[in-house]
Design a protein that fits this description.
Layout (H helix, E strand, L loop, with lengths): L1 E8 L11 E2 L2 E2 L8 E12 L2 E2 L4 E12 L3 E13 L4 E12 L3 H4 L4 E3 L8 E2 L5 E2 L3 E5 L7 E13 L5 E17 L5 E5 L2 E27 L3 E18 L5 E5 L6 E10 L4 E10 L24 E11 L4 E8 L22 E8 L2
Parallel strand pairs: 12-16
Antiparallel strand pairs: 1-4, 2-3, 4-6, 5-6, 6-7, 7-8, 8-13, 9-12, 10-11, 13-14, 14-16, 15-16, 16-17, 17-18, 17-19, 19-20, 20-21, 21-22, 22-23
Pfam family, one: TonB_dep_Rec_b-barrel
Keywords: Cell outer membrane, Membrane, Receptor, Signal, TonB box, Transmembrane, Transmembrane beta strand, Transport
Subcellular location: Cell outer membrane
Length: 358
């Protein structure tokens, strides 16, 4: 059971220093109720059923209620069937649920992009236009986001230490929450002109792909692990002015991603782990609500690889020392204002940590 109460008080909020009025949203807290509240209650039940010696069923059910949108039923059914002691088939279907945040529902809160990730304005003909900055207003009429998630896969666990999986997944979204591409209007403050947008529900979106993993020991001191994901679909239907719709990428994800690591037990206490992540091509979308650039002047991102190095040293008193470096070759990928296609990739970084186990 989960009970969560949230309260957002914007009595002293000044809309990020800009001045305007639109509908029920205003930079002046005296114009509308600055307090937004939400009470969420969730009840969840899951049970493993050994149907046969080989078949395990896992049904689940959840009831969510919130005073802002009422109740929602969700749940799922997963199954695992052992073909042999080494091979297993797994599958399942489940309904997921996500309620809007208080910031997205508040009529008082204004998200100011400052030019970073400014949503596009798309007219009925599919033409693009935007100012250098914009604001995204709250929407107290938002619906909860739901999805139907399906997957089926096969797993292998051999006596020789080899473990491998291959899974197909397909997720259908309804009312996905994101900033709208429909411009409400514009205003000028301090010499800067802003487009106005609002948090909204995207009626339909779909994500599907294949993911796999492979792990095995290489002798007594080395362990190899590789996993990857290939995206088949990642798109949404965006409504245009006039009632038409277009298809666009749901998010800027690589066509494929591969992760690999080699764990080396250098001594009884010291483990060294070099690893990498390889990203495939990322297709840019002129219709993405989080993409920079203007008038479709966007670029696809070419594949690239990041390399990391980590180590762990185990002391005999329960302390573990960890340290390492990420992006050790300092691959620099930056988002720019002109032709931006995705996001900044952090450059080389170092870390160190100490853990005590009781």
């Amino acid at each position: 059971m989960e009970v969560r109460y949230e309260k957002l008080d914007l009595s002293d909020y000044t809309a990020n220093g800009i001045s305007f009025d639109y509908g029920n949203t205003s930079a002046d807290p005296d114009q509308n109720d600055p307090v937004t509240e939400q009470l969420n209650v969730g009840l969840y039940y899951e049970h493993n059923i050994e149907a046969t010696d080989r078949l395990t069923l896992t049904p689940s059910v959840r009831l969510d209620w919130a005073d802002s949108f009422g109740h929602n039923w969700s749940g799922g059914l997963n199954a695992s069937y052992a073909l042999t002691p080494e091979w297993t088939i797994n599958g399942g279907i489940a309904k997921a649920f996500k309620s809007p945040s208080l910031y997205q529902m508040s009529e008082q809160y204004v998200y100011r992009t400052r030019g970073n990730g400014c949503p596009y304005y798309i007219d009925g003909a599919g033409n693009l236009d935007r100012y250098s900055q914009c604001v995204v207003l709250g929407n107290d009429n938002l619906k909860p986001e739901t999805s139907i998630n399906k997957e089926i896969g096969i797993a292998y666990a051999g006596a020789n230490g080899i473990n491998a999986t291959l899974t197909y997944f397909h997720n259908d979204y309804r009312d996905k929450i994101q900033s709208s591409t429909t411009r409400l209007g514009s205003f000028t403050d301090g010499g800067t002109t802003y487009n106005m947008f609002q948090w909204d529900n995207v009626p339909e979106a779909v994500v599907s792909g294949v993911e796999g993993s492979f792990a095995m020991p290489l002798g007594d001191r080395f362990d190899l692990a590789i996993n990857g994901t290939y995206m088949i679909d990642s798109e949404q239907k965006i409504p245009l002015d006039g009632g038409a719709t277009i298809k666009a990428p749901l998010s800027l994800v690589p066509e494929y991603t591969i992760n690999g690591s080699l764990s080396w037990q250098a001594t009884d206490r010291l483990t060294v782990i070099p690893s990498f992540t390889h990203f495939g091509k990322i297709e840019a979308s002129p219709y993405s609500a989080t993409t920079g650039g203007a008038n479709g002047d966007l670029q696809d991102r070419d594949p690239y690889t990041l390399w990391n190095l980590a180590m762990t040293y185990e002391f005999d008193n329960g302390f573990d020392l960890s340290a390492g470096a990420t992006n050790i070759f300092n691959t620099s990928i930056k988002r720019s204002g002109d032709g931006a296609n995705t996001y900044n990739e952090p450059e080389r970084a170092f870390y160190v940590g100490l853990t005590k186990t009781f």
